[in-house]
Specification:
The two termini are about 15 Å apart. This protein has two domains: about 5-140, HUPs (Rossmann fold, 3-Layer(aba) Sandwich); about 160-310, Rossmann fold. It is about 45% helix and about 20% strand. It is an alpha/beta fold and about 300 residues long.
């Protein structure tokens, strides 16, 4: 399914917290791990102040420090039985990560949302955000927290798949099935639709006029609610049966009627200790999740790992 796991590091313990999940996936799928560290190219203002020889010495020294940093981590993973390689990259971190991973479309990138300097330095709006918005590879985003220790051991018993009924959102399913199978985890399907008051509020002003006009071809709020529930129930039942039959996976399905789809996903993932697998975009429109914005909010605010599929 994946050719390898690429783990961007930056010398910080926060970035290294991604290693736990990289090891879990690489070990369960028997694929190699590639550790990478990118160091910034010196800005023109700095280079102009030094001779090419001095600039080259500075870059060579930075590369040597990077190699020295990655070597013991590689040794630790080698000793644990993983197949590991390392790469030091000259360039802006986000650009270097995207370029290296983009050369192998089947590579999975596993990275922390925070790195050197903590939240103020490497937040989602920085390196991880640029990678997520630029890369075509699947990216597993791990929220790092101050004070956490990278143990190299974790377990995931549930793979949570938020869906909205669109084919685009369902593109996450092969990834969810592959990971669930490798980890011997169950798949939890989740569909979120608006609550009853959403429909009543949206039709409150126009519904009396439609009734008075005798206009046909419209649905009352109660009819919309019933139709939505029926469609969701059929959709989840069919998908659950297909996944269970085709892949033999243990599958559960849940429908929640709430306004804030992102918060429902976050709360469900937390309660189930799940890995969330979702696409960057889904269906938009009345009563549907916009998975572009929902995915963004889940990645930014969830403490659970989130695998983002473009």
């Amino acid at each position: 399914m994946y050719s390898k796991v690429i783990v961007p590091l930056d010398g910080s313990g926060l970035a290294e917290q991604a290693l736990t999940y990289a090891q879990l996936i690489a070990g369960s799928m028997a694929i190699p791990i590639e550790l990478i560290e990118a160091f910034d190219i010196l800005p023109p203002a700095v280079r102009d102040k030094y001779t090419p020889y001095i600039v080259r010495m500075m870059l060579d020294d930075a590369q040597e420090r990077s190699e020295s940093y990655l070597a013991p981590i590689r040794g630790r993973l080698d000793a644990a039985g993983y197949t590991v390689s390392t790469s030091t990259l000259r360039g802006m971190p986000a650009d270097a990560i995207v370029a290296l991973a983009g050369a192998d479309s089947e590579a999975l990138v596993v990275m922390s949302t925070h790195g050197r300097g903590g939240i103020s330095r490497w937040v989602l709006g920085s390196v991880a955000d640029k990678v997520l918005h630029s890369i075509s590879n699947p990216v597993l985003v791990v929220r790092a927290t101050q004070g956490s220790v990278t143990s190299g051991e974790t377990s995931l018993k549930t793979v949570l798949v938020p869906l909205d009924g669109s084919k685009r959102a369902e593109m996450s399913l092969p990834h969810a099935v592959g990971i669930a199978s490798a980890l011997e985890a169950r798949i939890s399907l989740l569909r979120v639709t608006p609550p009853a008051d959403y429909y009543h509020q949206n039709l409150a002003s126009v519904e009396p006029r439609l009734i008075a006009s005798g206009e046909s071809g419209w649905m009352s709020a109660d009819d919309l609610i019933a139709a939505d529930a029926g469609e969701v129930g059929t959709y989840l039942s069919d998908l659950k049966g297909r996944l269970s039959g085709d892949f033999g996976a243990e599958v559960t399905a849940e429908h929640q009627q709430r306004r804030n789809a992102a918060q429902v996903i976050i709360d469900t993932a937390t309660a189930q200790s799940s890995l969330v697998v979702m696409t960057t975009h889904g269906r938009s429109g009345l009563g549907r999740m916009v998975l572009g914005s929902v995915t963004d909010r889940v990645v930014r605010h969830s403490n659970s790992p989130v695998l983002v599929i473009r």
